[in-house]
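Homework-ish question, so no full write-ups if that breaks the rules, but can someone show me the predicted structure for this set?
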Amino acid sequence: MIRVDNYEKTYRTTVAVRGLSFEVASGAVLGVVGPNGAGKTTTMRALAGIIPPSSGRLSIAGFDVVQDPIAAKGELAFIPDEPQLFDVLTVWEHLEFTASVYRIADYTAEANRLLEQFELNDKRDTIAQELSRGMRQKVAICCGYLHQPRAIIFDEPLTGLDPRGIRTLKASIKERAASGAAVMVSSHLLDLIDDLCSHLLILHKGKCLFQGTIAEAKSHLQSVGPDATLEDIFFRYTETSPTTGD
Amino acid sequence: MFHPALWMLMRLQWRGGLRQFRKSVMSTRGIIHLGFVVAMMAYGIASMYFAGKAISLAPQISDSLGQLQNDLPAVALFLFTAYVLLFSTGDATVCFTPGEIAFLFPAPVSRKQLLSYKLLKSLFGVFGFSAMMTLFTSRSIGMALPRMLSIAMTLSFLQLLTMNVAFARQVMQAKIHQSIRIVLGAVIGIGLLLAVAQILATTTTLDLADYAKAIQRSPVALWLLWPFRIFVQAFNAERLLTYLPSASIVLFIDICLLTLAYRLDALSLEAALASSEKMAARMKNMQAKGVWHTFASADSSIAGRRIPQLPFLAGIGPVVWQQMTTTFRSSSKLLVVIAGAVSIAAWIVYAVSHKGGASSHMNGSIAGVAAMGYMSFLICLTMQNEIERVGFLKSLPIATISIVIGELLGFVVLLSFVQSLFFAGLAWCFPALAIWLLSAIVLLLPVNFVLFAVDKVVFYVYPTRLAKGAPGDFQKSGKQMIFMMMKLLMLGAAISVVAISALPGALILQSPLVAIASAVIVLVIECSVLALLLVLAFDRFDSGTATAS
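A: Not a homework solution, just the prediction itself:
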């Protein structure tokens, strides 16, 4: 569903991402982890069609992000780390606009269901300027879910959410994956990745250090032992050998 | 084809703006703020109208202004175009709001549709601004609409030109782009040098009207300004017959630039994202720290700009050092503005005093003093007081009086020093008035202190932070106007008391010493009272009561 082949991104002399290839199948949840500056957001923005790759091929649901951006974007939801809304628009108007931009004819029932799920029902007529950060995040997620995307990309999704909001979001991600969406989640919260993701991608200085299932990550690293946490694995990979991880 | 969702977005944003407006006028405070905005606008329009009437009654001034009205806009347009072609990155024309980036960039909307959205949205802004400008400057009701259209077309020209420069930068190789800029720079530079040489050779005074005549006499200046005179002709036309040909040419130029923008097809989302993030960071800097921090450099090279550590002086020294180091590192434009203001003041003094006559030196000195006073006022008002900084200052183990004085002292001393040099220069130029001018230097420090202290007291009592204005939210501007009036009234009262105290010495005794001594005594009392007020206000300062403005 989400496919990246030999993706590279360079800024003048700086290489942000080099030779990255991975795939997120339908129903899988890929956790993307890495220290600051690893290339996580650059990769996600490239998949969202916001920044072009320097080389390589990126596709969403079979549509090339560079060659056929409109079709690719139509299948994707990208929820950035900072929830940026239109200040004077109400919550409902954000959904109304999203429905229009993704050309969803009958969206009312789904929009109401999402507002109910994310406990935003009583805020539907509140303008974005008056919402807390967590609520803005929830609105961004509702807008992302509205067109039933086949690929969903979350960049640091939990920032600002309250415990109930975190539980709801986790449940919704699992629900979306179960219904066939390919989900990518970047986070520094390794517990979240451990809890939520079926697959793991460790990036460091623009290079892929590991990709596979979390169980595979543990079996790769014999030195950390069977009870190793994802945190142990992360530090083992990022602070030792950059290529093999062990 | 324009994406229907983009129409919807514009419609929703307009509706949101109206909703904000309705909400604003629902409260008494909102009505007061609206009243202030309306009153200030009415004042602006009325003063322009009556100034126009008064000028038309004085034929000599009217002729000079008529000449300037034709030349100055053309010169301004030429300079802007040269700046855009040679130095501009065009960032402002391709930047989007954070909401637009989050919703439109990853959405199935094509690049051309985004460009159309951007252009259409700015066109609404252009028309709004043009209507306002027409209201302020129109001389006949019959030509109001053509004038508004001309202003709108001129503003669109500037915007489209900048946008095309930004796009050209994206599609061209960096080396080719740079080479084109060098060639253009050489052509414009040589033309400008020749024109300036011809103008200077034919002017004997520093009057703007004389410059206007000299421009007319310079073939190179006429050649450089020729394309821009068409724009000026369009918005200065007083009959449809003279308006239509020039307006048609302007429209044609705009259409050509618009076509070029679509042909270049270079609205790269990556470049737009970078521009938008840069602009958002600038806005954030400006809202938090003031106008002078808008173009603050983000790299560590500024760390080289150091000022030496100051003595402790009961805690005043470190506060002044920290503030002035920050100013030198991130607000270096402020220093450029001070230098520019001094040059303009010197030019005003020369222009006023060179005419000869018994009172020309006196008039020149008064103009210089007034220009310096205005400079202090302008710099003081554009300093954004930072709410978060008060929290930091409160946490310091330093007495409140040292903190509040330290907060003012850096700028007060800097401006007073610059102004002292200027006054000394004036005294050297006008020896007959030297005793008055040199004595006035004594007043600079307390006068500047009063100015900055009044601003700070108002801020500590009514802490405001600059916030992004939502459409229809006039409360922001209304509130700013009320605070400005409050500061002006306080300053007016303070300066009036000082002036009254100095009058007997100046007019009856004709003694600069007595006049200045009386003024100094009153100023010292005022400074002491203000320092006390600052301490009280700082101690009870609560950032929780901060309001957006």
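Now go work out the reasoning yourself. Hint: The CA atoms of residues 16 and 42 of chain A lie 7 Å apart.
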